[in-house]
Specification:
By secondary structure, this protein is mostly helical. The chain contains two helices and no strands. It has two domains: 102 residues; 52 residues.
Length: 174
């Protein structure tokens, strides 16, 4: 234990301490008395206002409950909408990625099939279009040539028919 310090004056120390203690003790008694009186006043008011104060407290509690419910419901709705937007965004992203992947697979498949067809000697669609166009041009040329010699053939046939007659006449004359 710690030893007490002795003051230099023989009777002055204890009197100052007693005055301070008495003042603090008086303040504390006054505070306790005020608290006691406040509690008695609250009890008297509660007895006087009784049922009306109770009804007011119930009404205020009900209003507070409704406000907290509506606030909570709004918060839940906001969180739910935010979650829906997040899920929809992720679904859209996944759908885009799947579409892109599918397109890449399709392009790869088409490329490999085209390469295999080229190795087998199958013409490409562009080559078939060019050949079709060339065949159509050739058909037009053949038709044009076929129409021209028909007129020329009649003359040649007539010339040929007249040639033997001329030969017979030359033989007879000769």
């Amino acid at each position: 234990m710690a030893a007490r310090r002795k003051t230099g004056k023989a009777g002055g120390g204890p009197r100052k301490a007693t005055r301070k203690t008495a003042a603090a003790h008086g303040n504390m008694l006054e505070s306790v008395q005020q608290i006691w009186l406040a509690g008695m006043g609250a009890i008297a008011r509660a007895q006087k206002e009784g049922p009306a104060a109770f009804q007011d407290a119930v009404r205020e509690g009900f209003d507070l409950l409704n406000k907290s419910r509506s606030t909570t419901e709004q918060m839940i709705r906001d969180v739910f909408e935010s979650a829906q937007e997040t899920v929809q965004t992720r679904i859209d992203t996944a759908r885009e990625q799947a579409t892109e992947t599918w397109d890449n697979i399709e392009a790869l498949f088409q490329s490999r099939v085209q390469k295999a067809l080229q190795q087998m000697g199958v013409p490409s669609p562009e080559e078939i279009r060019l050949l079709t166009k060339r065949v159509a041009e050739l058909n037009d040329n053949v038709k044009a040539l076929a129409a021209r010699p028909a007129r020329g053939r009649a003359k040649k046939t007539a010339k040929r028919a007249s040639r033997p007659a001329r030969r017979k006449a030359a033989r007879a004359a000769g």
